[in-house]
Amino acid sequence: MAHVVLTDLVKTYGTFKAVNNVSLRVEDGEFVALVGPSGCGKTTTLNLVAGLVPLTSGDITIGDRIVNDIDPKDRDIAMVFQNYALYPQKSVYKNLAFPLQMRKLPRDEIDLKVKEAARVLDMTHLLERKPRELSGGQQQRVALGRALVRDPAVFLMDEPLSNLDAKLRVQMRSEIKRFHQDLKATIIYVTHDQLEAVTMADKMAVMNGGFLQQYDSPATVFANPVNMFVASFIGSPAMSLVPLEVSTNNGDTALSGTEGWSMALSPLNARKVQNSTSKKVVLGARHSTIKLHKHVIAGGIPAKVYTVEPTGDVTFVQALLSGATVNISVPPTVSVAPDETVWLEFDQQRIHLFDGETEMALSAA
Amino acid sequence: MMNSPSNPTPKARRPIDRWRWTGRLFLVLMLLYTAVPMIWMLLTSIKSGFAALQFPPQWWPDEPTLASYQKLLDPTNSVGRDFLRFFWNSLFVSTVTTILAVIVAVPAAYAFSRFDFPGRKFLFFAVLLRNMFPAVIFLVPLFILMRLLGLVNTHGSLILTYLTFGLPLAIWLLKGFYDNIPIQLEQAARIDGATRFQAFILVVMPLSVPGIIATAIYSFIGAWNEYIFAYTFINRNDQLTLPVGIQRFFSENTTDFPGLMAASFMMSLPVVVLFLLLQRYFVKALTEGAVKH
Ligand SMILES: Nc1ncnc2c1ncn2[C@@H]1O[C@H](COP(=O)(O)OP(=O)(O)OP(=O)(O)O)[C@@H](O)[C@H]1O
Ligand SMILES: [Mg+2]
């Protein structure tokens, strides 16, 4: 196993920058999830680490070696592809044996390793089948097995679960997590499913438009998103973002909405707001931190209900506030109807404040 | 709804059947159109010279005979000697053309499919441009070129010519095939320890076998049947290929129809055999390479 360091990684296609100055360090044995919306450069980043596409500039270090100009086969990596990329004309056995054959291992040793991998992944009975004779989940195991038979310095996985149905995905998720714990493997795992990232990874790297936005533990990324993109991308339903104006209320700094109401701020939040580059500030709040009242209360902000979505455990209410939509979760026992006026109470300890111009999180310092 | 009396099932099915029967009828007519001349060829080839000229024509000969075939395949008489020589010439020219076409088309098609090099689009267009003109307009220019190269009356002139006609389509057909092989397979192989070349040989090549076979059949048939260029470039009797050879050979004296038909039948034999053996791949190539995306 080894650590991986990316330094100022850039990949351009013509004039288009698919990967833009990405720098990050994956420690030995760490599980890092690369997340971001479609087309943000996740696969490209992974392919750069693998050496499948030439990099434009920057450095890639695996272990203690700069691998910029080293062939994929000599980088000591294994990769699981988004579409599995099993060799269609080869049996499962031969698919698993291929990486070992290419490394010129003796035949009996190959046999031993293939059978061991098949046993671990519970597919001994499938060894003679061709990939097309397998279900999606079984193909996925073979793809994982082909990476497992060797023991490489780094595992790269590109959305390995995206083609599976929900149930199988949950099952495979825990298997991969287990595999990481058992082998203490270094894994870079691409996904656009943030739930996968949050449940499996030690750290997550959030990308957007080729830029690395934030690189930290899932808990930190969730609790302290560095900007509005990360805030809205991580968490489901998404964090509500309400554009507001800085105002003064009896000499105290406050925020006011287009409807004319104003919201008092705690001293800490007031100091954050004073650091904004303009009068525009965006208020962020997760659905579970907002209280919904059916009757007017002190400090409550009036909003109009837009939609109500009961899911069984909780009911999600969307309300309109200052031109934005706010997600609130309420117990299923609370009954609200569209167009009803409700009063929202924000938790000063748990709201997020962003600079309306730069979209960066505001800090008190 | 299920057993609504106004819409009984048999009535609903009738239009579908009518279409199906029209389709079948059409196919039968097509089959007759293509098969009757061939059957006639075969039947004539086993008639005596006299029976072949009878009027009204006889469908099934009174005394079927294989004499024409014996004559053609017997190297001790001059007819058989010439026929076997033409046959060998055709086989040689077509086989060499096919092998060269595959050797050139495979890497060219792969490069067009996989690599992004400057001028790629233009070059691919240039390759296909050849096929937008009728072949005959190249007859005189190519003849002049062959004379300059000193290739007139050699099989080399034919092989080169057939390659210029066969390659564009071969490259296009194979490119479609490579386009459909996911690039991740090669990438997986390279990560699993293969060089670029090994990934191509071990993973891509086996998957493109149907495409290569289709390309080969196409090149072979094209070369085997070609007449105009062979007629123009080759004058020496010992260098003639079958299409021209048969024609010259039999119009020298009064035409021996059973002999002509027997020779024609034997000429079509390799193509038919090749096609029957490999049609599985050919169909696969046409449906997978060109249509599916
Ligand atoms: N060979 C290429 N030529 C030109 N542009 C490319 C090429 N490969 C990728 N791109 C572009 O680079 C950007 C990043 O692509 P990439 O495949 O890394 O996205 P991704 O984050 O993996 O997305 P997804 O979640 O959809 O898989 C995209 O805008 C894509 O169009
Ligand atoms: Mg991708």
From TrEMBL, chain A:
Domain of life, per lineage: Bacteria
Record keywords, A-Z: ATP-binding, Nucleotide-binding, Transport
Membrane topology classification: Peripheral membrane protein
GO biological process terms, semicolon-separated: carbohydrate transport
Main location: membrane
SMART domains tied to this protein: AAA
InterPro entries, alphabetized: AAA+_ATPase, ABC_transporter-like_ATP-bd, ABC_transporter-like_CS, ABC_transpr_MalK-like, ABC_transpr_MalK/UgpC-like, Mo/tungstate-bd_C_term_dom, NA-bd_OB-fold, P-loop_NTPase
ABC transporter domain location: 4-234
Cross-referenced NCBIfam families: PRK11650.1
PANTHER family given in the database record: MALTODEXTRIN IMPORT ATP-BINDING PROTEIN MSMX, OSMOPROTECTIVE COMPOUNDS UPTAKE ATP-BINDING PROTEIN GGTA
Name of protein: ABC transporter ATP-binding protein
Originating organism: Oryzicola mucosus
